[in-house]
Amino acid sequence: MTRLRGRLFVLQVLVVALLVVLVVRLWQVQMVQGKQFVAVATETRTREVRVPALRGAILDSTGHPLVRNRPSLVVSIDPARFERMPDGGDSVLRKLSAVLGVQFQALKQRIRPCGPGISRPCWPGSPYQPTPVADHVTSRQALQILERQEDFPGVTAEIQAVRNYPYGKNAAQLLGYLQPVTKEELERREGLKASYSGVDLMGRDGLEAEYDAALRGQPGVRRVQVDRMGKTIAVQQQAAPTPGNILITSIDAKVQAIVEKAVSDAMRDNPQADSAAGVVLDVKTGRVIAMASRPTYDPSVWTGGIAEKDYRHLLSDKSGKPLVSRAIKGTYAPGSTFKISSVAAMVADGQPLHGTYECPSAYNVEGRAFPNAGGMSLGSISLHTALVKSCDTVFYRAGYEEWLRDGGKTAKSKVKEPMSNMARSFGFGKLTGIDLPGESAGLIPNRAWKRDLWNATKDQMCRRAKTGYPEIKDEARAAFSKRLANENCLEGYMLHAYEAANFSIGQGDVQVTPLQLARAYAALVGDGKLRSPRLGWALVKPDGTLVKEIPVPVVGKLPINTETRDYIRKALSEVPSDGTAAGAFAGFPMGVVKIGGKTGTAEVFGKADTSWFASFAPADNPRFVAVVLVSQGGFGASAAAPAVRQIWEGIFGLGKGDDGKAVKAALPDGKPASRLPVIRPDGTVGR
Predict the structure, then answer these.
(1) What CATH number did the domain enclosing 106 receive?
(2) Exposure string (b/e) for 203-231, b if CB count within 10 Å is 16 or more?
(3) Does any domain span residue 145?
(4) Closest by alpha carbon to 648, among 633, 632, 628?
(5) pTM listed for this prediction
(6) What is the pLDDT of residue 616?
(7) Total count of domains within the chain
(8) DSSP H stretches of helix in 510-637
């Protein structure tokens, strides 16, 4: 009995002690930590939802949309919510799979973060953002998700604006594409997270990237109270998003379509060609009227997430890397189109503009014969004829003699280098500054460049001079590469005579982009000013209010007088009628619109020749410059010149289409749009 009473006493003490502990804990929770727990409880029931802004459209110069938005029902999941689930959200994904008709594993792949060793599809964006798993879902599918939120926690279905491309593949590299902002970008850039909504995308190339901030707008914010199931109870605060600005470009959609078809036809008609590009500039303003590149792709492939096979295709050598714009990123030897710079350099260096020059079938440079194309010999000619007939030997001699005056292999302490310096004045070897990312600067070699290159590569060259190139299977090519390595090892710092001769006709190490060549011709046949081309013309609010007009900067002036520029222009005006492009322009109505231009055929080791044609029209008072490049296209007159003819016929309505009917002029008055299209308050476009 005593033992039982003792046990009851102990039990009473324990009960009293537990009650005391409970009372003390309740006092702490309510009195000491009460405010803290209230704040935490309030926080867990409040959600901040960032409402995406409508991205601005991209229009051509007449107001036609090049990129626009269209509504689409998009299903997304909240990765942070899924991570907190015991099974990582797999049970929800299986239910979602049944509703959407998409395999569970496919959904699983779409929400996994991209990273090293992870193949697409995957989510390249930030884990802070909802991850879209399906777009173009039906209203019925969306309702099944929204009405059964208890079965689909962390899943949303809402209407979002997705990018639409009315002209398909046209101007794909020019326009660019969108991709989610990555976690690394959000963490690296202060304030970036605050400027993005959960479904915002960032411009990754082209105009989408260059004008991303203006096009994106500002997301809105909505603070809502939710219950423990995540359902909205009440809206506490709401700030509407600010739509992005509309970008009006100088691109004319009709001319763009003509250039796209011209470069496509050039590739089709020259099966060995591996790439092509076309550029049309407004001579008066320096604005880009059209720009096309081949190979190309359909930009809609990025909408809703890109598949692994499509992503690999865009990056593969086999497909020609269609993401790369050959117009601004591709660099090639310009061949004889470069002679405009060489003539200007000869005259600036003291040679007579109206003098007489010998055009033998070949010119000897330190024991090596440099022949004319086809071995032609024209005797004593003018610089005018040298340009029209493209006599290489006139330029070989000029380049060689200028090299000798600079000291030859043993350079003087101060060298003039008139040809390379003139080329830089024409804008070669430097970025044009166009409003597109990823532009290439090209290359204008000189003595300083040679020495810098030698210092950087001499060890490798000397090693290769001994070991050769066993990985090259072609014996002749391997032997040539070994001899070249030995030469570069011993005297790679020297600018040789043959390099100076090749430079004069745009060969050797000279590399330019189609845009650089078009800009140089625009300066030559225009007012002599070198401009930084622009695609963007103006930014306009959705209600039509002008935000700003985008100017075209003047960045230089050609160091040649008007007489020299007119002399070169008049010589080039005879190339399509009596020169190297006469065959390509046979039957062209020069009496209606006279065309000027220059062919270029550049040799490439181990490949077919690069074909160029740089032209302008009307020849007497140029308003446009058109340049076409066809890599491995052969002679300039056989691949690039016919493509340029096709462009002029389309712009001025002078030819016939594939159906045999007369082509309707893209620009009936021969001029680009001079006034911005009017964006009305309701969003419609007028003139």
Answers:
(1) 3.90.1310.10
(2) bbbbbbbbbbebbbbebbbbebeeeeebe
(3) yes
(4) 628
(5) 0.86
(6) 98
(7) 2
(8) 514-525, 562-572, 575-578
